[in-house]
Every structure is written in C-alpha cells, then in structure tokens.
Specification:
Largest sheet: 9 strands, mixed
Strand order of the largest sheet: 3-4-5-2-1-6-7-10-11
Distance between the termini: 14 Å
Structural class: alpha/beta
Radius of gyration: 23 Å
Shape: globular
Strand content: 15-25%
Bound molecules: adenosine-5'-diphosphate
C-alpha cells in the first residue's frame, strides 16, 4: 500500500504554470506537485525568478540569501517563497539579479550561464537546510546537472545520499556546452568527469540520465521511442533502460474545465456539449471571420519542425483546394520566423477560410480548445502532448500523427472504443486525408456528437499519474 505521508519532494524546473510557461513542461510542473500534495506528500517547486506578471501580482517572503561562484563570477542570490500557497504547494523563486531576471524563459545568449548558476544556487540552498528532502526531482536539461553535482561535487557532500529523479519532457533539447567552461561546475571528483560527457561535450541531459537514481519520460510510448530516436542519446537510453519508465502526464482538471473556464464564452459539460461548443465556435468565428457552418480545424503550439508546423501551410492550402473550401483552419502559435512568415503569406492567397494568430495567448488557446471541431497535431516528435488531452476534455476531436504520447492517448474512431483521428506519417498527404475524414464526420453530426460526449468523459486527470510518481519515490527509500 502506498504511503506518501510526509515524504518531501523538491521539483527543480525552468517553468511552472502560472508563473512562467513556454510549453507542456510548465503545465506539468504547475500541476503534478499539487496532486502529490493531495496524496500526502510535501511537494515543493524551485524555479528561476523571471521578471513575470506573477512576480508583480503576488506576495513573497525572503527565505534565504547567499552568494556563490560560477566559474570566475560571483553571484548574489535570494530565495523567495510565495506567501499564500496560491498554487497548492510551496513555490520558491530563485532570484539572481542580472542573470535570471529576464522577461522570457529561454533564448538568451547566456542561457548556459543562467541555468548553470540556477542549479548551483539551488544546491547551495538545499545544502544549507537543516534536513534533507526525500528526493530531488529534476525536469529536462535545465536541471540536468543536479544529479551529478549532488553526487560528486565536493561542496555538496552532505547531499550525496539524496535520491534524484529525472523526468524527460523532451529529449530533443539537451543543453550541451564545451569542456572549456567545465570550471563553471563547482569542484568535483575528476575521475567522474566521464559522467558529464556525451560526444565530447558536457551534456546536462545525458549526465542526468547517467546519474539520476530513476529516469521517467512523459509517456510509455515516448520511452520506447527514445531507445531508437533520442537525438543522439539512443545508446545511452538503451544502456540505462533498467532504471527508466514512462508515466503518462495528466491534465490539471481544475484549470482545464469546460464547465468552469472563465476564458471561454460559455461553459458546458458532456450533457450540453452541442450548444456549448456552438456558442464558443461563434465567438471564434466572430473574431476570425469564419463561416460557423463549416468544420473548424485548429492548431495550437510552438511553430517548430518537431510539431510538424512547417507542413501547415501546405496542408491548409491543399486541404482547402481538395475540399472546395468547405472547411476552416485556425493556427495559434509562434516560433520559427520562416513558418510564421509562410502562414502570414498564406492568408494572402487563400480566402477567409484560414486565419492565424502569431504569438502566445493563453486565453485564446482555451477558447480554441472549446470552439473548434477538430485539433490538428501533425507532430514529428511528441513526448506526451497535452493539447490532445485538453481537446478531448473540451469535446474537440484530436487529429494526430501516431507518435509518442499521441499514440498512447488517442484511439481512431474507426477502431473499437475510438474517438479521434489518427494518421501514420507527418506528411501533407496523410494530414489532408485526415481532413477529408474530419469533414465526413462533421457531416454525420449525430456520430460526431456521440464521440464528443465519449471524449469528455475520458479520465486523463493527474491523480492516476501522481500515484505512479509516488510509487517511484517510495521505491527509492
Ligand atoms: P510542448 O511542451 O512540446 O510545447 P505540449 O503539448 O506538451 O507541447 O504543451 C503545449 C502547451 O503549450 C499547451 O498547454 C498549449 O495549449 C500551450 N501553447 C503552445 N503554444 C501556445 C500559444 N501560442 N498560445 C497559448 N498556448 C500555447
């Protein structure tokens, strides 16, 4: 029987919703600790103190102040604790003035220095505690040096016995940097240097895979995929396979609740899904100039190659041509400037059946999940994917490429118990074929509405996944 009572877990992450979010990592770290806490854990999150609205609008107390060396530079840092338990768990912001107080999360020339300094300061702070946490849970490469440093840096000798867990949200990004700046990492046992290395450079993600006590990925399907497609880490994953497992992400049903969502025009449940979705579709059609009688296919996400976003202009152009403009497309996203430009260009060539919002807009994303009929995800890589889970919760049929977490969570409506649309290849042809199937389904409104009700009743909440993480922490005792 699971016993989580009083177990103290410290999550270390670059993102945490609603403080700062770029993608799914923020959603997960904003939700998982809350559910762990509900199961009796003491879950804490420490993240960089960016200059965000959350910082301005909330109250914090200073709980620690110190300074540390990162290579030749001395940094002063503060640890701030959010005062009101607003997120349902203890949130700590690590403030390094002049380094972490940026408006954005990533994409700065000194990102390596920023995240190395963050990790060093986190361990300095944890080493100063009177007690030890039961586990440090690292997320992606931004906290990937922690398992190595906690085990082998001389100044963290007191943390050596603290178990470390790594969750890989996306193995495409590994945070590599050269050995010439190895001295940014506090002095360590030189015999262990190989544990930092992968391919002749320091690779924080690879190092975390080697040094963590356990490794998880955000879906079982992605775990299997990493053994043959992990952006260069395949052989490492295979050799460390015994300590790796896949735990499917959940969704925060208190944030993503079509009945209580104040970011959409009309709340609805499975019972009144037809009128509820129509009201929200009307709101979208007003903003983007669509004909509400036509099916609306949307895309939300980072406009990058991994998401298949480069295929969108061709998919949309061809699908409109093949289907005589009997479908609408809406894209919300930002990312690769060339893809952004191509989408803007496409607007000039096709009619009012296509529109786009280039940028990040949390409220609009909620309205799109609620008001669209279909959500397209032609991903090349999808470790878990949250968009399809939100779309299921809002009764919107996901149209997904069969990969990673998409394969684990969406069953094609042509198969037994199915509700979504799946296609095999991230290609214009496969996606357009699926658009054809979506239009057919939209014409059979009774069938579509049955699927909507079925989808909305599926359970992808965090409870189940949080229990699996607690089992994992327990196995480290
Ligand atoms: P990833 O983490 O790879 O970007 P996920 O599917 O795991 O992909 O999570 C994406 C999250 O980011 C979802 O919550 C999605 O709604 C949100 N999102 C992505 N792009 C945007 C955007 N431009 N505006 C609003 N929300 C966005």
């Amino acid at each position: 029987m699971l016993n989580a009572d009083g177990m103290e877990i410290l999550h270390v992450s670059a993102e945490c919703y609603p403080v700062a979010k770029v993608g799914g990592l923020g959603d997960v770290v904003g939700a998982l600790p809350k559910y762990e806490q509900e199961e009796g854990c003491i879950a804490k999150v420490v993240m960089p103190c960016y200059k965000t609205k959350f910082l301005e609008n909330n109250e914090f107390e200073l709980v620690h102040q110190a300074g540390t060396w990162v290579g030749p530079s001395w940094f002063h840092f503060n640890v701030l604790k959010e005062k009101t338990n607003k997120l349902g768990f203890d949130l700590y912001l690590l403030d390094i003035p002049g380094l972490l107080d940026t408006e954005g999360v990533y994409g700065y020339a000194n990102d390596t220095e920023r995240f190395v300094a963050f990790q060093v300061a986190v361990l300095d702070w944890v080493a100063s505690w009177q007690h030890r946490p039961d586990a440090i849970h690292c997320h992606d490469h931004h906290s990937g040096l922690i398992p190595f440093m906690a085990s082998y840096c001389l100044k963290y000798i007191s943390l050596r016995a603290v178990p470390t867990v790594l969750t890989i949200h996306n193995a495409q990004y590994q945070g590599q940097f050269g050995w010439d700046i190895m001295h940014w990492i506090p002095a360590f046992d030189p015999w262990k240097a190989g544990l930092l290395d992968w391919g002749g450079v320091i690779n924080p993600l690879a190092s975390a895979i080697k040094c963590s006590w356990r490794v998880t990925t955000v879906s079982p399907g992605y775990m299997e995929e990493l053994t043959y497609a992990a952006n260069g880490l395949e052989s490492l994953i295979r050799s460390e396979r015994a300590k790796c497992s896949g735990i499917l992400n959940g969704i925060d049903t208190s944030v993503w609740d079509p009945q209580q969502d104040d970011m959409i025009r009309k709340g609805y449940s499975a019972r009144n899904v037809v009128s509820g979705k129509l009201a929200n579709k009307k709101a979208l059609c007003e903003v983007f100039g669509f004909d509400e009688d036509k099916p609306l296919v949307s895309f939300i996400g980072r406009l990058v190659y991994d998401k298949g976003a480069d295929l969108l202009p061709d998919i949309i152009g061809r699908a409109l041509y093949e289907n005589d403009n009997q479908v609408n497309f809406l894209v919300l996203g930002s990312g690769d400037p060339h893809i952004e430009w191509s989408l803007e260009q496409l607007k000039q060539y096709v009619g009012k059946e296509f529109n786009t919002y280039i940028g990040y807009n949390e409220a609009l994303s909620h309205l799109i999940y609620a008001g669209s009929d279909f959500l397209l995800m032609p991903s090349r890589v999808e470790p878990c994917g949250l968009n399809q889970l939100y779309s299921l919760r809002y009764g919107t049929v996901p149209m997904v490429r069969s990969i990673g977490g998409l394969k684990d969570t969406v069953i094609d409506f042509g198969d037994e118990g199915g509700y979504g649309i799946r296609f095999d290849h991230p290609s214009v042809w496969d996606a357009c074929y699926s658009v054809g199937r979506a239009i057919e389904l939209y014409r059979n409104r009774a069938h579509l509405n049955t699927l909507r009700r079925l989808m909305m009743k599926l359970d992808f909440s965090w409870q189940r996944s949080a229990m699996q993480y607690l089992d994992l922490y327990n196995s480290l005792k």
